[in-house]
Write a structure and sequence with these properties.
Blueprint: E1 2-7, H1 10-16, H2 20-27, E2 32-37, E3 50-51, E4 61-62, H3 64-77, E5 82-92, H4 95-101, E6 106-111, H5 119-124, E7 128-131, H6 141-152, H7 162-166, E8 185-186, E9 189-190, H8 200-218, H9 220-225
Parallel strand pairs: 1-2, 1-6, 5-6, 5-7
Antiparallel strand pairs: 3-4, 8-9
Amino acid sequence: MRIDILTLFPSMMTMFFEESILSRARKKGLVEVHFHDLHQYSLTRYGSVDDYPYGGGAGMVMAVEPLANCIEQLQRERRYDDVIYTAPDGEMLSQNMSNQLSLKENIMILCGHYKGVDERIREHFITKEISIGDYVLTGGELAAAVICDSVIRLVPGVIGDEESALSDSFQDGLVAPPEYTRPPEFRGWRVPEILLSGNHAKIEQWRYDQAVERTRQRRPDLLKEG
């Protein structure tokens, strides 16, 4: 899998991919992540990529020309399954969406800034718009990092125990059940006896029941959707 990230602040992005699982995934060659500085596609000698909005109003807008130049240069080099824009009004990121994106070969992510991008970019280049929540950030880099993290961890071989990813919250429409590890008792707080029983069928039923109950208490909207 290859991910190309279009950003005004590539140094902000590189730090995120130099640690932990994402770093190991890149070193293993399981995923490529490339960062493209949009300032380099500016048509001005100052490297500016934004301008005042037509019609007036506060804020700035990311200009159409540098964005189009960058996207088209990358598209001449390879075919992209999706060109994603991080936008507050995009489709909410979900586990199902991450599952689908993890099957792609090449994706491009455009990090939004200011009041957003010139609408012509969205109309003619963007194939998917993604939001990570109903709030506004100073830029789309954090959203792009969240998207990448949720997708890359699902690529085969990235997580040592692939079954672990399949039992994560939301994979089956439920949040995850409680988890425990050693010691079996700490300060009088005991691990549920069923988990120490060795009866795998009963343990799986307990985990399912706990997941349903925890979902009912904390995320009843997921049960309604199901």
